[in-house]
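Q: Got one fold?
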Amino acid sequence: MWIRRYHPAPEAAERLVCFPHAGGSASFYLPVSTALSPAVDVLGVQYPGRQDRRSEPGVTSVADLADSITEALAGWDDRPLTFFGHSMGAVVAFEVARRMEGAGGGPVRLFASGRRAPSRTRDENVHLRDDNGLVAELRALSGTDGQFLADEELLRMILPAIRSDYTAVETYRCDPGATVSCPVTVLTGNADPKTSLDEARAWADHTTGGSELKVFPGGHFFLADRQADVLAVLTEHFRMPART
């Protein structure tokens, strides 16, 4: 229910688990799966309320999302896992990593893209706006396919899931001392209105395994315009010696 596997790669030595942004779906990472398979077994997390899970109510808590995803990933950890999360997906991935590490497992690395450090908060209220205000936010960030924003029927179908996601991420609060033990690679756009470079660097406070920051030209969805560069970062990671 939670996991999508577009290019099964049973012979791959490692797995990449991809966590979507607010309003996003597992299929956002289809290009990643296409590029990395069959060397890497790529899994996409599908949140409720969208695409084939459209009939299910959205989840309005990052903690609840993380609990469910942690349970869903049981059995997929028979080989080393790497996490990649963009925007809201970055903090969801962080919380899943914390839960898995608490149980004796966890990813070998977390890629946190387009999101400030978990303990860095802003006064955000997009989830409280009316539908027009929510759509305005989507247009401003350029993260939603234009055909959905122009199609009234499609738009009404996806807005409840988007509002649930925004509620989850905007009400998320993290203990400043919360950490993971895996290394964290932070990816950010140099013109991202949602994440300053200082907020991105602060991910270093949330790992005991070391962190690095990679800055790309672009805004909040820099990874769409810099897809080749982001894939190169992931490819380099998976070329490193196999982890156990």
Q: What stands out?
A: DSSP finds nine helices and seven strands in the chain.
